[in-house]
Design brief:
Helix content is about 30%, strand content about 35%. The protein starts with a strand and ends in a 12-residue tail after the last strand. It has one domain: Alpha-Beta Plaits (2-Layer Sandwich), CATH 3.30.70.100. By secondary structure, the protein is an alpha+beta fold. It is globular and about 40 Å long. A four-stranded antiparallel sheet has the order 2-3-1-4.
């Protein structure tokens, strides 16, 4: 079974409270790590631009990530409109053929 690995860049939305976003992201990470299919879920804050964050995620498969977006804690965080996604990268081993399918 191959794992599904992504990196995502997010940043604070205009007008959002920095401390509220940081607390929300910490809680989201904590709750996400206990989800079925979650192998790794980390959120790191940019030291030079603290309104920007990087998510490192590893899931058992694409469906586990899709299921993550249906979890009550994920929906609750997203409903706050604190951050927005700048990019999502699907990652693989060096030299691996490109990923197929969509999330």
């Amino acid at each position: 079974m191959s794992e599904y690995v992504i990196s995502a860049g997010i940043e604070l939305q205009d007008g959002a409270d920095q401390k509220q976003a940081e607390a929300g992201l910490r809680l989201l990470a904590e709750q996400t790590r206990s989800e079925p299919g979650c192998i790794r879920f980390e959120i790191r804050q940019n030291l030079k631009e603290p309104h920007k964050f990087t998510l490192w995620e590893c899931w058992e498969n694409r469906q586990a990530l899709a299921d993550h977006f249906e979890m009550p804690h994920t929906k609750a965080y997203l409903a706050q409109n604190l951050t927005e996604v700048n990019y999502i990268e699907e990652l693989g081993e060096v030299g691996q053929a490109s990923c197929t399918g969509t999330v």
